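A common beginner's mistake is to predict each chain separately and then try to dock the pieces by hand. The better habit, illustrated here, is to supply every component at once so that their relative placement is modeled jointly.
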Amino acid sequence: MAIKHLSPELLNERRKQAVKLRLDGHTVAVASQQTGLSAPTVSAAWKAFREGGWAAVPVKPRGRLKGQANVLGTDVQALLWQALYQEPRNSLLHLAPGWSSAGLAEWLSTQHGVVLSQRAIEHWWEAQGLKHKPWKLEYLTNSHLANNYLAKQRSQEGRWFRSAVAPVFTKLKDADQRWQGGVRRVARPSGSVYQIYLHGPRGRLLMRCFKKPPKAQDYLAVFDALNSSGAAALVFHGALLSASPEVTDWLAQQPAFWLVPVPADFTLTI
Amino acid sequence: MTSLTHLQRLEAESIQIMREVVAEAENPVMLYSVGKDSAVMLHLARKAFAPGPPPFPLLHVDTRWKFRAMYEFRDKMAEEIGMDLLVHINPEGIEKDINPFTHGSAIHTDVMKTEGLKQALDKYGFDAAFGGARRDEEKSRAKERVFSFRSAQHRWDPKNQRPELWKLYNTRKNPKESIRVFPISNWTELDIWQYIHLQNIPIVPLYYSAERPVVERDGALIMVDDERMPLESGEVPMMRKVRFRTLGCYPLTGAVESEADTLPAIIQEMLLTKTSERQGRVIDHDSAASMEKKKQEGYF
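With all components supplied together, the output reads:
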């Protein structure tokens, strides 16, 4: 394996091994041959050992330390929160089921003249605990990855998928019509944030935030926008929507929109 | 000589109290609220009188508003242990359809719990009733003696309590007076959990964390346990990972957000907590010193 592909742990192990060989009297060439490290690396490890002992042999951690990233200014963060609490818009600033990173970047640019990349927004989501990861609900049958997915699992979750989700998903040939989402509370030092998240095709994450638990009209606004955008099935977790007469009435009027609730306490593999 | 652990000392004390009551009282009963303290008390009673069953029945003063899981657990336990289970519901409460929503928590508790308990004690003529109250739960319970004497009208006089020096209990009472006995008064919530874990005592699953449908009411997370729970306009219950530290009537019992789904995890959580479990009970916040007032009127 080429040295640049070694993990830091393995590289450190081999550097220590190279130093031991040098201590045993072997040449740089032999140490290099036995450890798979290059001769300059063996020499560098040996030099580090002579100057700083065993503690100096491991390489320094790669990359930037956590918390040293460029942090968005408080004014930009306030704007992002302001947007997330508002009605969501897509990148063309039309009403959308939720805010995407593209939509937020566009809104910041056009409304406030702030240029921020989608990647920066997604990093900020992650730092705020807003980046929810999708479950492996794709209905793969022929792929070698199929066993990792719920469709193949012999668990309660797998049985639920086969009986409740698969029949709906198989009816929809277009992947753009299959969505998953949910609602959750995100605990923050400044107070709770209630987030409705949606995962569209190809890992697209959309979201909307609330200061109080969302009401039926908030869910319906999301479902309506999803329905208008062509989504036909939504696997939803985190709310007892069957208890809301407004939601059940709306669903009864949408025969082409399937809402599949995720049962409580299901551990869906991420 | 091996010394007893603190749990063994507490266990021995509780067993001694139970045997003392059975020796002195004419018609004792054990109040069974289906919670964790009742579970421990029942376990202690079975130990105290083994190999036979405890020589008294269980009494559940029902309000019709307990969690469904509690009713299932109560019936299962009664069947398993083979003890008599008496269930009393205040008939006046049924007739007037007293409930926590339209009548409020204070009236509901007074009619369905306090009056219901007094009716049941009078109906069956019980002169001693075991209760699972603990001193660490609430300040009025902290000052109540293990043997708490009640007048013929079931009233408690906190200023007239008998000394219990060296664990010597004076059980003499006048005709029609009764005693409420609290064998686990000196236990803490942590002791209860440790004992449950140690003795593998079955408890209602609501004590373990799970995703449950809840709504927020005045800062408390109230579980939507059945269709009788009225939702506010547009309100949608959220599924949150919660558990209960205390169990009562479901509309009056707040859940806590928790990931503790095993007994060791609950014990670990208990070690870090700084609040009383009774903070989850809406009825305790009705007014200042409301628990003491309720106790004076005959609440358990």
